C-alpha cells in the first residue's frame, strides 16, 4: 500500500508541476495544435495551443511507478511492466503521428494504414509476450489464452486449439487494443474530456485489481476450497499500483488540460491511454468488461460509425449534426464545459456499472 500511495503521489507532483515547463518548451519549439477547417468554428481559437502533452503524463507515470518502487524497496513486476510496454508503445505510434502533423502543418499525420500498422506491431508484440513469457516457479504464463468477461469464460478457452488458439488470442488482443486506443483518440476532442473519462475508467481498474488482490487464490491457500470465487490474476496489487499511478499523473495533467486548455494530450496521449486501458482489461482477465469501463469512449466512437454508415446508406443524410458525438452537442448550442462535465457524469455511470457488475459476480459466488 505504501508503494501504491508513493507512486501515485510522485506521478501527481511530476505532472502537476512539470506540465507548465513542458507548455513553455512546446510553445517555444512550435509544437502547436493544428485545427481542421471542417471542425466546429469555435475550435479555431485553439489553433497553436501546445500539444503532445501525453508525453508529460507518460513520463510522470514512469517516474511515479519506478520512484514508488524505489522508495518502498519493492521490485517491479512483469504484469505491470507489460501494461507499461503497451502504454509506451502505443504512445510512440501517437508521437510519430503528432510529429508529422506538426511538421507538415496539417490535420493528418501518419496515413491510415501506417497508423494501424504501428498499432498492430505493438499489439502483436504485447500479445505474444503475455502468452509465452513464463512467470513464477510454476512456469505459468502471464495470462491464459481464454477470453474473459468479468473473469475467464470456460467455453472461450482457446488453449485446446494449440498454436491456432494462440494466434486467435493474439488477434483478440489486437482488436481490443486498437479499439480502445482509437476510441480514446476519438473522444479527445474537447478540453479535458478524454483526460477526465480515462481517470474514471482507470480508477475502476484500480478498484478491480485491488479487490482481486484481497481475494487472490494465491493468498492463504484459497485455491483448493474457494477456486470458484477467488482470482488467479498475477500481481493484482502491483496492477492496482500502476492504475493509481496513471490516475495521479492524469489528475496533475487535467489541472492544465481543463477548459480553457493550456495544453492538449495529442495522439501520443490518447493512444497511450487507450493502450493502458486495454492492458488493464487483459491483465485483470476482464476483457469484455472493458465495454462498460470504457463506455463513454465506445459510445463516442460508435456515433462516428453510425453517422458514416447512415450517410452511405441514405445517400447523404445524417443522424447527428456532426461527429464525434460531443461536436453534435456543440452545434446544438451547448457550452463546451457543460458537454465535458455531463460526459464525465456518463463516464462515471458506466464505470460504476462495470465495477458493480464485477462485484455482483463475486458476491453471488459467496458460500
UniProtKB/TrEMBL annotation:
Alphabetized PROSITE patterns for the sequence: MRAY_1, MRAY_2
Pathway(s) served: Cell wall biogenesis; peptidoglycan biosynthesis
The keyword Repeat appears for this protein: no
EC number annotated for this UniProt entry: 2.7.8.13
Reactions it catalyzes: UDP-N-acetyl-alpha-D-muramoyl-L-alanyl-gamma-D-glutamyl-meso-2,6-diaminopimeloyl-D-alanyl-D-alanine + di-trans,octa-cis-undecaprenyl phosphate = di-trans,octa-cis-undecaprenyl diphospho-N-acetyl-alpha-D-muramoyl-L-alanyl-D-glutamyl-meso-2,6-diaminopimeloyl-D-alanyl-D-alanine + UMP
Cofactor list: Mg(2+)
Transmembrane segments: 6-27, 48-66, 78-96, 116-138, 158-180, 192-213, 233-256, 288-311, 339-360
GO cellular component, one term: plasma membrane
GO molecular function terms attached to this record: metal ion binding; phospho-N-acetylmuramoyl-pentapeptide-transferase activity; UDP-N-acetylmuramoyl-L-alanyl-D-glutamyl-meso-2,6-diaminopimelyl-D-alanyl-D-alanine:undecaprenyl-phosphate transferase activity
Record-listed Mg(2+) binding positions: 185, 267
NCBIfam families per UniProt: mraY (TIGR00445)
Purpose: Catalyzes the initial step of the lipid cycle reactions in the biosynthesis of the cell wall peptidoglycan: transfers peptidoglycan precursor phospho-MurNAc-pentapeptide from UDP-MurNAc-pentapeptide onto the lipid carrier undecaprenyl phosphate, yielding undecaprenyl-pyrophosphoryl-MurNAc-pentapeptide, known as lipid I.
Family the UniProt entry places it in: Belongs to the glycosyltransferase 4 family. MraY subfamily.
Protein's recorded name: Phospho-N-acetylmuramoyl-pentapeptide-transferase
Native source organism of the sequence: Agrococcus carbonis
Amino acid at each position: 500500500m505504501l508503494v501504491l500511495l508513493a507512486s501515485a503521489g510522485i506521478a501527481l507532483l511530476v505532472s502537476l508541476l512539470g506540465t507548465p515547463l513542458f507548455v513553455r518548451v512546446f510553445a517555444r519549439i512550435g509544437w502547436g495544435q493544428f485545427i481542421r477547417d471542417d471542425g466546429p468554428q469555435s475550435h479555431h481559437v485553439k489553433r497553436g495551443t501546445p500539444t503532445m502533452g501525453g508525453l508529460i503524463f507518460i513520463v510522470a507515470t514512469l517516474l511515479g511507478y519506478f520512484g514508488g518502487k524505489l522508495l518502498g524497496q519493492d521490485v517491479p513486476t512483469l504484469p505491470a511492466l507489460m501494461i507499461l510496454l503497451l502504454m509506451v508503445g502505443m504512445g510512440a505510434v501517437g508521437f510519430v503521428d503528432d510529429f508529422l502533423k506538426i511538421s507538415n502543418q496539417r490535420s493528418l499525420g501518419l496515413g491510415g494504414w501506417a497508423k494501424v500498422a504501428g498499432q498492430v506491431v505493438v499489439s502483436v508484440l504485447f500479445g505474444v509476450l503475455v502468452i509465452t513469457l513464463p512467470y513464477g516457479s510454476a512456469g505459468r504464463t502471464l495470462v491464459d489464452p481464454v477470453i474473459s468477461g468479468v473473469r475467464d469464460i470456460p467455453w472461450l478457452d482457446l488453449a485446446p486449439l494449440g498454436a491456432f488458439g494462440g494466434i486467435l488470442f493474439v488477434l483478440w488482443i489486437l482488436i481490443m487494443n486498437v479499439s480502445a486506443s482509437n476510441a480514446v483518440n476519438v473522444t479527445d476532442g474537447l478540453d479535458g474530456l478524454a483526460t477526465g473519462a480515462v481517470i474514471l475508467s482507470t480508477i475502476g481498474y484500480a478498484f478491480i485489481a485491488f479487490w482481486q488482490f484481497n481475494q487472490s487464490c494465491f493468498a492463504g491457500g484459497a485455491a483448493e476450497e474457494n477456486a470458484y470465487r477467488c482470482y488467479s490474476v498475477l500481481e493484482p496489487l502491483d496492477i492496482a499500483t500502476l492504475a493509481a499511478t496513471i490516475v495521479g499523473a492524469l489528475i496533475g495533467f487535467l489541472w492544465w488540460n481543463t477548459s480553457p486548455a493550456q495544453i492538449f494530450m495529442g495522439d501520443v496521449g490518447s493512444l497511450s491511454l487507450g493502450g493502458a486501458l486495454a492492458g488493464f482489461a487483459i491483465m485483470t482477465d476482464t476483457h469484455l468488461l472493458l465495454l462498460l469501463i470504457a463506455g463513454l469512449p465506445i459510445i463516442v466512437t460508435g456515433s462516428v460509425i453510425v453517422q458514416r454508415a447512415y450517410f452511405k446508406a441514405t445517400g447523404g443524410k445524417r443522424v447527428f449534426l456532426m461527429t464525434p458525438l460531443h461536436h453534435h452537442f456543440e452545434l446544438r448550442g451547448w457550452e463546451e464545459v457543460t458537454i465535458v462535465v455531463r460526459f464525465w457524469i456518463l463516464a462515471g455511470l458506466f464505470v460504476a456499472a462495470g465495477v458493480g457488475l464485477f462485484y455482483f459476480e463475486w458476491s453471488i459466488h459467496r458460500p
